[in-house]
Protein backbone atom coordinates (compact mmCIF):
# COMPACT_ATOMS: atom_id res chain seq x y z
CA UNK A 1 0.00 0.00 0.00
CA UNK A 2 1.35 3.42 -0.96
CA UNK A 3 1.41 6.08 1.72
CA UNK A 4 1.23 9.84 1.32
CA UNK A 5 2.07 12.52 3.86
CA UNK A 6 0.90 16.00 4.67
CA UNK A 7 3.37 17.81 6.88
CA UNK A 8 4.18 21.06 8.62
CA UNK A 9 7.73 22.32 8.95
CA UNK A 10 8.84 25.01 11.37
CA UNK A 11 11.36 27.26 9.65
CA UNK A 12 14.33 28.96 11.30
CA UNK A 13 12.49 32.31 11.16
CA UNK A 14 9.55 30.81 13.12
CA UNK A 15 7.22 30.59 10.12
CA UNK A 16 5.47 27.39 9.05
CA UNK A 17 5.56 25.59 5.71
CA UNK A 18 2.90 23.02 4.77
CA UNK A 19 3.51 20.37 2.14
CA UNK A 20 2.60 17.00 0.61
CA UNK A 21 4.94 14.13 -0.28
CA UNK A 22 5.27 10.40 -0.88
CA UNK A 23 8.55 10.18 1.10
CA UNK A 24 8.60 12.30 4.25
CA UNK A 25 12.23 11.63 5.24
CA UNK A 26 13.54 12.44 1.77
CA UNK A 27 11.37 15.55 1.50
CA UNK A 28 12.55 17.02 4.82
CA UNK A 29 16.13 16.33 3.74
CA UNK A 30 15.46 18.14 0.45
CA UNK A 31 14.06 21.16 2.30
CA UNK A 32 17.14 21.30 4.53
CA UNK A 33 19.54 20.79 1.61
CA UNK A 34 18.01 23.69 -0.27
CA UNK A 35 17.51 22.40 -3.79
CA UNK A 36 15.85 25.51 -5.20
CA UNK A 37 16.80 29.13 -4.55
CA UNK A 38 13.21 30.19 -5.16
CA UNK A 39 11.71 27.73 -2.65
CA UNK A 40 10.01 29.22 0.43
CA UNK A 41 12.18 27.20 2.80
CA UNK A 42 15.52 27.93 1.07
CA UNK A 43 16.32 31.10 3.02
CA UNK A 44 14.58 29.78 6.14
CA UNK A 45 16.77 26.74 6.78
CA UNK A 46 17.17 24.72 8.84
CA UNK A 47 13.61 23.47 9.01
CA UNK A 48 12.16 21.07 11.56
CA UNK A 49 9.33 18.60 11.00
CA UNK A 50 6.74 19.47 13.66
CA UNK A 51 3.64 17.65 12.40
CA UNK A 52 2.84 14.88 9.93
CA UNK A 53 -0.26 12.90 8.99
CA UNK A 54 -0.33 9.75 6.86
CA UNK A 55 -2.89 9.08 4.12
CA UNK A 56 -3.54 6.16 1.79
CA UNK A 57 -5.44 8.25 -0.78
CA UNK A 58 -3.36 10.97 -2.45
CA UNK A 59 -6.43 13.00 -3.38
CA UNK A 60 -7.58 13.22 0.24
CA UNK A 61 -4.03 14.15 1.28
CA UNK A 62 -3.79 16.92 -1.33
CA UNK A 63 -7.21 18.28 -0.32
CA UNK A 64 -6.14 18.33 3.34
CA UNK A 65 -2.85 20.04 2.48
CA UNK A 66 -4.76 22.78 0.66
CA UNK A 67 -7.06 23.19 3.64
CA UNK A 68 -4.11 23.45 6.06
CA UNK A 69 -2.45 26.09 3.89
CA UNK A 70 -5.47 28.30 4.49
CA UNK A 71 -5.35 27.96 8.26
CA UNK A 72 -4.10 30.72 10.54
CA UNK A 73 -0.80 30.38 12.37
CA UNK A 74 -2.49 29.85 15.73
CA UNK A 75 -4.77 27.16 14.30
CA UNK A 76 -1.73 25.31 12.91
CA UNK A 77 -0.03 25.62 16.30
CA UNK A 78 -3.10 24.17 18.03
CA UNK A 79 -2.94 21.20 15.61
CA UNK A 80 0.79 20.74 16.21
CA UNK A 81 0.24 20.80 20.01
CA UNK A 82 -2.85 18.58 19.69
CA UNK A 83 -4.83 21.21 21.61
CA UNK A 84 -8.24 20.21 20.31
CA UNK A 85 -10.17 22.81 22.34
CA UNK A 86 -8.17 25.68 20.86
CA UNK A 87 -8.34 24.13 17.40
CA UNK A 88 -12.13 24.16 17.62
CA UNK A 89 -12.19 27.71 19.03
CA UNK A 90 -9.87 28.98 16.30
CA UNK A 91 -12.09 27.32 13.67
CA UNK A 92 -15.15 29.36 14.54
CA UNK A 93 -16.41 32.14 12.31
CA UNK A 94 -15.18 35.45 13.77
CA UNK A 95 -18.24 37.34 12.54
CA UNK A 96 -20.46 34.95 14.44
CA UNK A 97 -18.37 34.33 17.57
CA UNK A 98 -15.89 37.23 17.74
CA UNK A 99 -12.12 36.96 17.94
CA UNK A 100 -10.77 34.80 20.78
CA UNK A 101 -9.02 36.77 23.54
CA UNK A 102 -5.74 34.89 22.95
CA UNK A 103 -5.06 36.47 19.56
CA UNK A 104 -1.24 36.28 19.39
CA UNK A 105 -0.89 36.41 15.63
Describe this entry's structure for a reader.
By secondary structure, this protein is of the alpha+beta class. The protein has a single domain (about 5-95), classed as GIY-YIG endonuclease, CATH 3.40.1440. It is about 40% helix and about 20% strand. It is built from 5 helices and 3 strands. A 3-stranded antiparallel β-sheet has the order 2-1-3, with helices on both faces. A hairpin with a 5-residue loop joins strand 1 and strand 2 (about 15-20). Helix 3 (about 75-80) packs antiparallel against helix 4 (about 85-90). The mean pLDDT is about 90.
- Report the CATH C-level class: Alpha Beta
Structural class: alpha+beta
- Report the β-strand fraction as a percent range: 15-25%
Which sequence of SSEs, written as H and E, runs from N to C? EEHEHHHH
The percent range for helix content is 40-55%
The DSSP helix count reads 5
N-end to C-end Cα span: 40 Å
pLDDT averaged over residues: 91
Note the main sheet.
3 strands, antiparallel
User: What Rg, in angstroms, do the CA atoms define?
Assistant: 15 Å
CATH topology: GIY-YIG endonuclease
**Morphology call:** globular
Please mark out the parts with pLDDT under 50 across 5 or more consecutive residues, or reply none. Answer: none
Q: Kindly report the spatial arrangement of strands forming the biggest sheet.
A: 2-1-3
Please sum up the structure shown.
By secondary structure, the protein is α+β, with helices and mostly antiparallel strands. It has helices spanning 24-33, 58-69, 73-80, 84-91, 94-97, and strands at 4-10, 16-21, 48-55.
